[in-house]
């Protein structure tokens, strides 16, 4: 490496780190970060822990639902975003209603398992259709909306890879859980489900980060729209100024002729 090559490499390094930092921040915002993961695990963990000891469906279900509501209240009190906590409340509520209706404690987990299966299929189907779901989720976070579909093919390819990763990982998770739903008891299913809550998620997020960190930078369509509005405003001001100058010149000529 020559002395001329090294500065070029060092100059490009901060941009590379900046792109990775932006990707990490966007993923944390989209998927809730560490706190969001904890909030998705705690209600199910409490349910299976109480049911393992007490074998009481009603007590376990009410405790899990109460905890999910407390998590929302805490976020509201801290004036933090509640979308991840609210999704947890709805998921727990569906599980509680379903389990209470059937009287089978294992059915507390069934709505979440069906949601996971549906989400896995959504990732795969949207990718096959050319609109990978992870791009629809992260596009607004990166301020690129759908520009990656037609204007940034490298980024579209990265979103497709990430969506395949999410779909296949979630399908693998379903391949473990659904047989257990039929063959295992409530406590066995519950503890396996808790154990599989975070690791597959972390793997999918890490792969998404790897693919996007190597992809072209997102096109900030919001900045483009703002720049276009400013250019349009400047053009109107320029025309108004020219019109005013033209009016002044005409008035001056009329006064001279008079």
Automatic annotation (TrEMBL):
InterPro entries: UCP010219 (IPR016566). Keywords: Membrane, Transmembrane, Transmembrane helix. Residues 233-258 are annotated as: Disordered. The keyword Glycoprotein does not apply. The chain crosses the membrane at residues 36-53, 59-78, 85-102, 114-142, 163-183, 189-212. It holds the Pfam family DUF3159. Signal peptide: none annotated. This is DUF3159 domain-containing protein.
């Amino acid at each position: 490496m020559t002395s001329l090559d090294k500065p070029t490499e060092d100059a490009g390094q901060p941009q590379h780190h900046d792109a990775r930092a932006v990707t990490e921040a966007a993923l944390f915002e989209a998927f809730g970060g560490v706190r969001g993961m904890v909030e998705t695990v705690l209600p199910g963990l409490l349910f299976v822990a109480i049911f393992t000891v007490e074998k009481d469906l009603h007590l376990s279900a009410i405790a899990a639902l109460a905890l999910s509501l407390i998590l929302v209240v805490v976020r509201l009190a801290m004036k933090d975003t509640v979308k991840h906590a609210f999704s947890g409340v709805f998921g727990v509520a569906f599980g509680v209603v379903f389990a209470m209706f059937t009287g089978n404690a294992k059915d507390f987990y069934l709505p979440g398992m069906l949601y996971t299966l549906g989400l896995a299929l959504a990732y795969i189907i949207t990718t096959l259709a050319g609109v990978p779901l992870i791009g629809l989720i992260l596009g607004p976070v990166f301020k690129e909306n759908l520009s990656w579909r037609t204007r940034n093919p490298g980024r579209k390819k990265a979103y497709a890879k990430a969506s395949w990763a999410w779909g296949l990982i979630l399908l693998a998770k379903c391949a473990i859980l659904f047989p257990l739903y039929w063959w295992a008891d409530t406590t066995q299913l519950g503890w396996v489900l808790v154990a599989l809550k975070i690791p597959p998620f972390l793997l999918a997020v890490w792969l998404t980060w790897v693919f996007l960190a190597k992809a072209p930078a997102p096109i900030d369509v919001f900045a483009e729209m703002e720049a276009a509005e400013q250019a349009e405003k400047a053009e109107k001001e320029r025309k108004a100024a020219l019109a005013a100058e033209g009016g002044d010149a005409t008035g001056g000529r009329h006064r001279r002729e008079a």
